[in-house]
Amino acid sequence: MTAQAQPISHAHEGHHPDPREHLMLDPKPRGEMNAMVMEAMHATSWKFWVVAAFLGLVVLICLFGAWGYMIMEGLGVAGVNRPSYWGIFLVNTVFWIGISHAGTFVSALLRVFKAEFRRPFTRAAELMTTFGLVQAGMSIFMHMGRVWLSYWMFPFPNQRQLWTNFHSPLMWDFLAINTYLLASTMYLFLPLIPDLAMARDRSTGWRKALYRILALGFRGTEGEWTHLRHALGIFAFAILPVMFSVHTIVSWDFAVAMRPGWNSTIFGPYFVIGALHSGIAAVAMVLIVVRATMKNMKYFIRPEHFDALGKLMLIVSMAWAYFFFNDYMVQWYGGDKWTDALLHFHEAGPLGWMWFGMLICNVAIPWLTLWNKKVRTTPGLLFTIGLLINVGMWFERYIIVPISLTINRMPFTWREYVPGIEVPLGIGTLAFFILLYMIASKLVPLVPVWEVQEGQMAHSLRKFGKETVVTVSDLE
After folding, report:
1. Are 191 and 451 in contact (CB under 8 A)?
2. What is the pTM of this model?
3. CA neighbours within 13 Å on the CB side: how many for 56?
4. I want to staple 200 with a disulfide (CB 3.0 to 4.6 A). Which of 43, 211, 425, 450 is the partner?
5. Based on the number of CB atoms within 10 Å of its own CB, is 465 exposed (0-12), middle (13-18) or buried (19 or more)?
């Protein structure tokens, strides 16, 4: 192992960095950190079971019960009708795919750029990717209506000569979600192997048998670590194009249509930056809840991590504002009468409050608050800002999908979209996401201990003259 010291931050003259403020400068023995993570997994209070039971009941009634009712009665119980054939089902699909982008961005992109603050919460973000894609896939199936015919989307030979229609946006979403789900699950599993091996060695009964299978016989030899690091490096670079292409494909669902408000060349990057906007805010919310409810998490997740995520939220908010006004100004300048009618409907229509609420939540609130470090490092305030950003991004998707469909080039078809059974189904997907996350928190270590220890080994304090400098070494 060789190391090359690189200064990453400088303290003010005469001021020594406080190790208690920085996880990488406050190391604990590997065994103690392992025990802390395992205790967080096993320490389950009655409150956990009450919340889990409530969420399970919501999922049973609002998701599977309402879905079964819609299957029996048909899509007529939903609000989709001419001209708004796409409703909350597609809104939720775009929203959950956007949430899923946070895991890849936080883990893969920050790994590529060697951002050290990512280490304790990469797995929490990666789990969001997998569970968010599950909700997006379910929303697509709900939108199909006759879900039992979904096998038609698989290109296999058959005697009826039915083949996949690659002109259908439904097919594009099917391929994009499945590709991203497979890639992100593999990327989640690879760095999980060492921690599964740790859990295997510290568990008994059915847990030990489960972890023995999932750990794939990992023993921590030098060769295994070398292969794991090489695989993670390859996957980090390979999954980034998949991340950007998936939400670009989702934007094509709209941009390829010759409809007012949709036919835009900027939709690709606009959708990607919107996905990051909602996703990073969701990561911050999840970390705040995990830190507040799980034992020992305050050691691993500290204000410095909230500070870094708050800065990212502010930067992405500025980028989203640029793309939003870019798209708006180009459509306004075009002067098409139907587009002008749509823009006026967005602002002054019955749901104009949603348009202004979107701008307040996505632009005004982040810009007015996240420049302040005290706000960024206060969990309650950051959680509230993250929640408002996600509300604003859901508004944005709602405006793009059903509201924009209200205005077309045939005024006699104009009709306001009024959701029906989509509302309980949307609540059910949200409850299912939270429930899956709660179950995962008790089955897998939410903190990658080996990554945290690796970072602590690489960081050190060195004194140069009167100044103390934090340095990080490249471990080979």
Report:
1. yes
2. 0.89
3. 8
4. 211
5. exposed
